[in-house]
């Protein structure tokens, strides 16, 4: 296999403080409340809107037989095949990423290495690897917020229209479910394809925005969002 040529930075970032630890200073509300505005529809095209796509991909299957720490587990032979297959599926859908954010675990990096053998554009895509994306995936309900924070640091409204985030369960399933507003299950090397129409990334990288779940697909067989309840494996 040729070496991966992904450009990346090893960035270990401190986890964001829990909501309970954040000080909130409240001002007294004015006596005359502002008129209630209708919720923005991000699921349909419109003037000034760009189609923005987000791929939440769980890493491919890893070898659990070697006596190494979890962070250093490598892909299994099956996992290498899975990564190649999901890359082909993403390519066939026309969802080639122009920006990648990922956990810095070994199996995550190897998943991208194998994918770049099929999806050659990944070899030159701007990619950022975060230790915090590995850590936060094990915590309850914090992954979506952290993905959004990391994205807002590097995403560009003009250059980036398809962003892929690669990481681990349980956090990736939780994040995909929160983005989509419905339960999403991700097996190894499975991806949730989400999209919105908006004027900017910042506009839709908020807790209040629900993204359209286009499809959940994996290496065994693509599955529509209505049948995306495949049982995840235990390899994180």
TrEMBL record:
Gene3D superfamilies to which the protein is assigned, alphabetical: Phosphoglycerate mutase-like
Disordered: annotated segments: 217-236
SUPFAM superfamilies for the chain: Phosphoglycerate mutase-like
Top-level lineage group: Eukaryota
Residues engaged in binding substrate: 107
Ranges of Low complexity composition bias in the record: 219-236
This protein's name: Uncharacterized protein
Protein species of origin: Astrephomene gubernaculifera
Source species taxonomy: Eukaryota, Viridiplantae, Chlorophyta, core chlorophytes, Chlorophyceae
